[in-house]
Amino acid sequence: MGPMATVDFLKKLTQATPAACDQEHIPLVVHFCSQTPDRTDALNGVGPSPLPSLIEAARSIHRAGAQALVIPCNTAHAWYEELSTAIQLPVLHIVDAVIEQLPLALRDQPIGLLATTGTMNSGIYAARCPEIPWVLPSQRSMNELVMPAIRCIKSNDMAHASQLLEGAIELMLNQGVRAIVLGCTELPLVNLERFLHVPVIDATDALAHMAVRWATGAQLQNV
Amino acid sequence: MGPMATVDFLKKLTQATPAACDQEHIPLVVHFCSQTPDRTDALNGVGPSPLPSLIEAARSIHRAGAQALVIPCNTAHAWYEELSTAIQLPVLHIVDAVIEQLPLALRDQPIGLLATTGTMNSGIYAARCPEIPWVLPSQRSMNELVMPAIRCIKSNDMAHASQLLEGAIELMLNQGVRAIVLGCTELPLVNLERFLHVPVIDATDALAHMAVRWATGAQLQNV
């Protein structure tokens, strides 16, 4: 979806792979399908569904030889069930990857979720992991800070994005969250470390580690 | 081929694309075919040919919908003609991309080429652009500095790679080169700027810009 988010995912996947030379790396087929209609617009009822584009991209990856699918876009997971049903590939779920990275001691604590309004409204995180008391930004913070920041990142204006996100994160920390999930794959493209005094789970990195484990496990089974 | 070199290429391509939102980016199908046999070993007669793997990867990309092929690996261009003949896709040539980035005033001046022994021995650069008086590292510099550095980069040991390359670049600058071509896509992964007091052409970046121009031109023709 977002091409820089995809590049970030591929970098994290490569770094997470135990390999000393090219040949030990994981074979990958990647479809940069940036033309996919905007996921949040679709969920807000103001744009076409991305599902046909997602299905076509998944099938093209399958034709090129892929054996499992990962989607480094949180919002696209609103169509996870429909997509999984339409294609013949197993799809790793980004929320499962995030939950795996969350320390056990924090799983009943308030966790802040920074994501698009599409991800928020479709309740992907709450549905996949209802036992966590997710803390979401207010409607105003979403409209004035989080969504403008994500649009800035997509158009490569990192300085402005950083400023907007600092405000959103301050508000969230004041609500007493014990950790923050970066639940939109654009967010880790901004250096947020200086604002964050709590553990941070980066959904992109979590999905990269899950993909490496899947590929490594599959290779082991084939030995 | 080298996965981090591919990530670097994709980042440079995304940055070179004029786009204000996801949907304005170029659709890409990428095959990380790290399992391709080592190109330099093949050219040195001590390993299998990468050609069957290159053809299979190119066909899988074609099946997934690609309309042109770029290969962010200089050494693989030793099989450019055989690959181009075997597939139905136009293949942009990395040396053409480099030459386009070279200032006109420098085209009859000594240009240093840092690349694998495979790229050197197969004479890809000299054959594609014979009018440039290419300056190559000595055999000893290749064996003791350049190739060990490239292997360090492939196994993510950037500090050691940087040290080795510093030596190779010093030797080359002493030979009076007027510019240096980083003719191996692993090399730009190390920060070399502090050693280089001459213009540098990064083959990865050059190929990224050529790909963007190809894609933009093709879209314009379709309008």
Features:
homodimer; 223 residues; alpha/beta; four-stranded parallel sheet; 50% helix; globular
Describe this structure in words.
The structure is a homodimer of 223-residue chains. A four-stranded parallel beta sheet of chain A has the order 3-2-4-5. The relative contact order of chain A is 0.16. Chain A is built from ten helices and five strands; from the N terminus they run αβααααβααβααββα. Chain A starts with a helix and ends with a helix. With 223 residues, chain A is α/β, with parallel strands linked by helices. In chain A, 50% of the residues lie in helices and 8% in strands. The model of chain A has no long low-confidence stretch (mean pLDDT 92). Chains A and B meet through helix 1, strand 1 and helix 3 of A and helix 1, strand 1 and helix 3 of B. Strand 1 (28-32) of chain A pairs antiparallel with strand 1 (28-32) of chain B, so a sheet runs across the interface.
How would you describe the oligomerization state of the chains in this entry? homodimer
Helix content of chain A: 40-55%
Output the structural class of chain A.
alpha/beta
How would the global form of chain A be characterised? globular
Strand order of the largest sheet of chain A: 3-2-4-5
> Rg of chain A from C-alpha positions?
17 Å
**Count of helical regions of chain A:** 10
Largest interface: A-B, 40 and 40 residues
